[in-house]
Amino acid sequence: MADQNVPPHRPHTPGGHTPTYEIPAAPYGPPSVSRGPQWVGPEGLGRQAFHQPAGTGLPHLDDDGDDRDRVGRRRALVALGGTAAVVAGGAALAMSPQVRGLFGDDAAGDATGATATDGTPARPSGQQPSTVRTYTEQNESYMGSRAGAALKKNSPSGGRTFSGPADAAARTPVTVKTVLAKDPVRHLASRATFGATPTVLADIRRMGIDAWVRQQLDPEKIAPSAAELKLAELPTLKLTSQQVRDQREQLNERGAQPEKEMVDGTLARQIWSQRQLYEVMVDFWNDFLHVAADFDGGEAYRNSFDRDVVRKHAMGSYPDMLVAANKHPALLLYLNQNDSRADAVNENLARENLELYSVGVDGGYTEKDVRQAALLQTGRGVDDGRYVFRHDRHYRGKVKILDFSHPNDSTDPKKADQVIDAYITYLALHPSTARYVARSLATRFVSDTPPKSLVDRLTQIYVVNKGSVKPLLMSLFSSSEFWAAVGQKVRRPMEYLVATYRTLGVAPQAGPGFRQGDSRRTAFAQGLRQIHDKLRELGQYPMGQPTPDGYPDVYVAWTSAGTMVNGWNEAADLIAGNRTQFTYTRPEKLVAKPPTTAGAYVDALALRLVHQKLSTRERNLILGVAGVSATARVDATFNGAIAAVARAILASPQHHLR
């Protein structure tokens, strides 16, 4: 009786529960990224230079030919780009792959009594879920390896908050070993945006660090970019859920897919919006409070969730966001809350509200708390595309979850619904939620092994400001730990690709070689969909994780040679201008006045693409790609090898690190 109509939880470890979520496979097939540490470098992969005749360029790494030749080509770039896997420039690290119906009537009762009302021998109600299910948090489980142990050595044991970001930047020494330039402007641009560009760097230097951060914290005051204005070419972005449902037939005839256009639009904003910190936070919350784009119902409701929940509150208040999410059809359908009623309780949303969206698995709740919460939340659902509270399906009776208790006996539907809001707000303001959000933010912006000193201070800021986001970000950017963490984050596949578009200065207008192949969709819309498809191949795209835990935000979860090579090949396509839906700067035009010697040209091109010079060893590797010496004379095309040289720079650790 205890588990009647309560789908089992997703698997975590051997002996855990079987999957429960009804999520269809993505139409593009499973992602090719291999989760789990499979490859590191560079020391274990050799240091040999890669020589070939000038002008032949760097071949596609997956083309036909002798297998031994192909391995040699890969190792040439791996020797350069693989350094990024060792975040602070240390030795190669071996990483082991590890990951992670209650009552028969709705009369008022007391679910807090001594009589066992939930649990099974395998899931005793009085124990913590982490004890029962041996579950560890996603990011921390990945970092529980030798790689994580090595990275922790670079995390400071303490830190402090300064009067503002500029003061913190000026007074914080960078002592970790890293290939990145210890330039605070470059560091801020790399972490607070989806990739530094010459324009962003110039803006920060012109405005000053403090003024630029303040501007980014008020995104509504930043004018939309040309690409954001072109989002009108994605016709479903502004439709309400009801309009999508009403126009489903017409949208199908036009080939419009709302859940995919939402992802397309998100990518456009990441690449071209001037509200970069806002877009970084939208991405952060879409992983933290995750609802997959491709769930059954996503076509009608997921865009509204992005617009009316995540984007509305991304720079506002997390408690407001969590309350709004728990009344949105997307979350209610995604986690089966629409099916939960007093006589057949579904625990999915109640569990994830505790485990993923608030206090965290080690936040002190028990299996009994999960069941109590599931009872309290009964009655919430969706009817005709809108949120409803069905009082006749709601459990009435005393509940106690952690330190939240309530008689929950009102016969007034409005008041009964307000009790659930009060509980969700309580969760969002819980001290464990404050620490969970603080640790997640520090992981996103500072290090895969965030310093405890910073997490402690951000936790306090969250508590004092009742979950407001802007004070958290200002405190983070004013911390010594943020400015000391140069080189301590590696870009995930989506971040790498978006940063590549940004640094190459790809423009959203169609290029001269574009030929209209789909009369129903503009060049801009077609190009965004191609980026979207490529990211599906790489295994990470906005809101793409099928399960509610969101994407991991630590690099060891993404160590895959295949993914890295695929990203390099995409960079080669961009350098060549192969996506004709967009406009590109020809590679020989990336540097306005290219030097006439090869070594100086590589330095200038590195400053243009990765915003700093490369080490002598890295520069020599790239010169080897072109088959020339540093003193050789070259023209603007690098004697025909400019595309290969640019591609090699974009495979360097300076572009993989952020």
UniProtKB/TrEMBL annotation:
Record InterPro entries: DUF1800 (IPR014917)
Annotated transmembrane regions: 76-95
Keywords attached to this entry: Membrane, Transmembrane, Transmembrane helix
Keyword field contains Transmembrane helix: yes
Pfam families, per database record: DUF1800 (PF08811)
Segments of skewed composition (Basic and acidic residues): 245-262
Region of interest called Disordered, as start-end residue ranges on this chain: 1-69, 110-132, 149-169, 242-262
UniProt superkingdom: Bacteria
Biased amino acid composition, Low complexity: 110-120
Name the UniProt record assigns to this protein: DUF1800 domain-containing protein
Organism of this sequence: Micromonospora humida
